[in-house]
Amino acid sequence: MALELYKKKRNFSKTPEPEGKPKSSKSKLAFVIQRHKASHLHYDFRLEMDGVLKSWAVPKGPSLNPKDKRLAMMVEDHPYDYKDFAGVIPSGYGAGIVEIWDEGTYSDLENSDIKTAQKNLKAGLHAGNLKFRMFGKKLKGEFALVKLKGKGENNWLLIKHNDEGAVEEDYNSELETPKSSPINKWLAENQPERLASRSKNSAAKETSSSKKKVS
């Protein structure tokens, strides 16, 4: 079963995560990217396919710069209902804070109907070269997940295609999070030096953008 490993790793009498059953969107495939403060802060990249969410852990988060090749480690399938999950996972597997960083729909590169898109996407996943178009609030345009050969069964690269949604400057997903986020609140209380570095980088980014506008 697609969710067997997911359920095996969790005690649903303790965790607020959805136990879930396979289900599907009716017109457009869904995606979600969750920022996850577990033992290490990372991003969970999830794409709906065959009634579940195919999932990758992306340590540095996604990027809109095509020059970036972000490591993405494929993990167990998650239930469709997980796309709406945000909260605190208690002590145990994946313990920590989860918040939604971006969400929306996605399709194959041709933006086909849902049946055709899913067929094309499944073929790409099987071939280790999954190309897709995202319609999110932060992530827009074409992306690819490319499986790394000889680097471990679950290692992939997440790459932005050079299109209208791409950027040329350095991209840091941490700078695209609100200060009011639960994870940022935790960082402020427990790792203030990390938030200070984030603020410094954000200020440098704003200065750089202002100079470009003036020029």
Primary descriptors:
2 domains, eight-stranded antiparallel beta barrel, 4 helices
- Helical segment tally? 4
- The computed structural class is alpha+beta
Q: Unreliable runs, pLDDT <50, ≥5 residues?
A: 209-215
Task: Specify the overall morphology.
Answer: globular
Mean pLDDT: 90
In percent terms, what proportion of residues is strand?
25-35%
Distance between the termini: 57 Å
Radius of gyration: 18 Å
Domains, number: 2
Strand order of the largest sheet: 1-2-3-4-9-8-7-6
Give the tally of β-strands: 9
Q: How much helicity do the residues have?
A: 10-25%
Commentary on this structure:
The chain has about 220 residues and is an alpha+beta fold. The protein folds into 2 domains: about 5-165, no CATH class; about 180-215. Helix content is about 25%, strand content about 35%. It is built from 4 helices and 9 strands. It has helices at about 5-10, 115-125, 180-190, 190-215; strands at about 30-35, 40-50, 50-60, 70-80, 85-90, 95-105, 130-135, 140-145, 155-160. An 8-stranded antiparallel beta barrel has the order 1-2-3-4-9-8-7-6. Helix 3 (about 180-190) packs across helix 4. The longest helix is centred in the C-terminal third of the chain and has 23 residues, at about 190-215. The chain is globular, with a radius of gyration of 18 Å. The chain starts with a helix and ends with a helix. Residues about 210-215 have low confidence and may be disordered.
